[in-house]
Amino acid sequence: xxxxxxxxxxxxxxxxxxxxxxxxxxxxxxxxxxxxxxxxxxxxxxxxxxxxxxxxxxxxxxxxxxxxxxxxxxxxxxxxxxxxxxxxxxxxxxxxxxxxxxxxxxxxxxxxxxxxxxxxxxxxxxxxxxxxxxxxxxxxxxxxxxxxxxxxxxxxxxxxxxxxxxxxxxxxxxxxxxxxxxxxxxxxxxxxxxxxxxxxxxxxxxxxxxxxxxxxxxxxxxxxxxxxxxxxxxxxxxxxxxxxxxxxxxxxxxxxxxxxxxxxxxxxxxxxxxxxxxxxxxxxxxxxxxxxxxxxxxxxxxxxxxxxxxxxxxxxxxxxxxxxxxxxxxxxxxxxxxxxxxxxxxxxxxxxxxxxxxxxxxxxxxxxxxxxxxxxxxxxxxxxxxxxxxxxxxxxxxxxxxxxxxxxxxxxx
Length: 413
Known about the structure:
The protein is 72% helix and 0% strand. By secondary structure, it is an all-alpha fold.
C-alpha cells in the first residue's frame, strides 16, 4: 500500500514538473509573439494585414458608398487610394464579410488605418481577457497544473499570433463558439442564439453550430438566431440598400471558387480543400472545389446523426458530440486560413474534457500542449495550412472515438 502511494506521488511530481516546463515554453512563445507584433508595427507593416480588407469595407460604408460595397472594382479603387497606391494580392484584398459587419466596423473608418488597427487590437485584447477569465472558471474543478496549461496553451497557439498580426476575426469567432457551447451546456437557448449572432461578423464558421440547433430540435434557440440575423440584414438593407444582401451572396460565390486570386490561395488553407489542392494540384481547381463541396455536404448531413436522440447537455458525451461537430465543421469549411486554426482550441478543449471524464485524457493533453510549438514551426516553415487541417482531422477522429466509448459505457450502465 505504502509503495503504491509512493509511486503515485512520484508520478504526480513528474507530471507537475512536466507541466511547469510546458507552461514556461508557452509563456516564452507568447512573449515572443508580443515582440513579433511590436516589430511589425515598428516596420510599418500594418497596411499588409487582412485588416485592410475589413477597413476598406468599413470606409466605403462610412463614406456613403455602401450601395457599391461588393463591387470589386470599387473596392480596388478605394483600397489602393487608402494605401497610397500600394496594392495587396493581385490589386485587391476584397471585403467579403456580411454587410452588417461593415456597418459595425464603420466607426473605425473615421480613424486612419494604423489607428483603426490599434483600436481593433485593443478590442481583441479585451475579448481575449474575457475568454481567459471564463476558461479559468470552466477549469476550476481541475488540478492547478491543468488550469494553467489551458491558459498557456491558448496563449501560445500560432493562430492567436496570426489573428493579432493580421487584425483577423479569428479570436472573435473563437469567443463566440466558446460562448455558444457554454450557453447550450447551461440550457440557455436564447443566449446560445445570441452568441451565434455575435459571431456572424465571421459567419462561415457558424454553419455547423446552427445545424446543431436544428439537429437537436432546439427550436427556441433556432428561432432566436433567425430573428437576430433577420434584424441585422434588415438593418443593412435599410442603411445600404435592398440589394446589398444579394451583392454579398455574389461575392461569396466568387470567393468559393477563387483559386490564387484576391488573396485566396487554397494551398495555404487549413482545411480539406487545402489538402486536396496539395494532393491534386492547383490545376485541378474544379475537381478540388467539387470534392470540397461534397465533403461539406456530407459532414453537414452527419451532424444530424451526431445529435440524434435525446438532447442531454448534462450527459458525459455532450462534449464529445460538440467537439466532433466543430472539428468536422472546421475540416470541411471552404475557407480556413492559418489564423483560423485558433478556432480548433474549442473542440480541442472539449475533447480533452470528454477524455478526462473517461479517465483517458493524459496522452491527448500531452499532445495538445505540444501543438503550439509544432504548429508554429509548421507555420514559419510554410506548412501551417496542412498542419491545421491534419489537426482538425485528428480532433474529429479523436472525438468520434470518445463518443463511441461514451455511448458504449452508457449502454453497459
